[in-house]
Design a protein that fits this description.
Layout: H1 2-26, H2 32-42, E1 49-51, H3 55-58, H4 63-66, E2 70-72, H5 80-90, E3 99-103, E4 114-115, H6 129-140, H7 152-155, H8 168-171, E5 199-200, H9 208-228, E6 231-236, H10 241-244, H11 249-265, E7 271-275, H12 295-315
Parallel strand pairs: 1-2, 1-3, 3-6, 6-7
Antiparallel strand pairs: 4-5
Helix pairs in contact: 2-6, 5-9
Amino acid sequence: MKKFLQYSATYIIIVTTVFVSIELTLLLFLNTYSYKRDYLEKHINEIEILLMGNSYVEEGVRPDIIGNNCFNIAISGRDIVYDSEISKKYFKMMKKLKVVVMPLDYSKFEFGRGMQNPKDTRKNIDAMADTYRCMHYKYMNLHVGGFWYWSELLNSQLNYMSRFWQSRNKSVECDSLGYIKLELAKRSNDWENRALPPIVDTSLDIDEELFEYYYQNFLTIAESCKVVGARFLIISTPKSNSYRKEINEVVQMEIAKFIEKLKVECPESHIQYIDFTYDDSFEANDFNDACHLSDRGAVKFSEKLRPCLVDSLLTY
């Protein structure tokens, strides 16, 4: 029995050592999260336009077209709380920051009243939550909640081991300014029914806790913009016809009230909202799925968005 315990203890020590070694060694290999953190910190006194949020912006707005020291720090699947943490941590150090762009996500406005659209061809759409959490903790140093560290080996569904032999171009998905290109040639055949909005039963009461979570994080970003005198531009990105057909008009009215509430509560934060949801200049090939732009669409959208952003640099 004594030998068994000794062997067991030795085995546990070896496994733990290997586990910890892999976790720590992965920190030495660049990925999209650590690249964006490093770029922001290195260029913190140069960035004038900061693109934030989730995949709507990461894959939908090209900083090279916007110009004027623009950087895209948005990341697919990001919970707004991490954008809020970025604003609190970095904005006060960004001496030239003039405009912050943040997407408003229609799907978030279900606030406990929604269900996955039965037409949506995606599966397990919430399965990556722990992945996004541990990557933001480990590689962007954004710690939210009761835990200081979330193990990549235990939580991440990304192929972390491949980074030991991948080139920089594969381990870092974005270009030098943070944009990720969605090539039309790789679009799935069922693209029109991928990433459809949830079905929202607006006859039900809103879950106030979920609403306050989303609202308070937006308010934090707005207040962080106010402190540095930056304009806070909130956008709804273009959506395909298949997505637009599933939109609940009551939710759209709730979004309008949400924006007005922000403006009233933070009147000096230079908040502006531009809704491109129903922009008919975008065609089928401008979309990678029902709500995300292809690279072709991102070029078109960035060119359309550029005057809205660059004009602000002359104002502030």
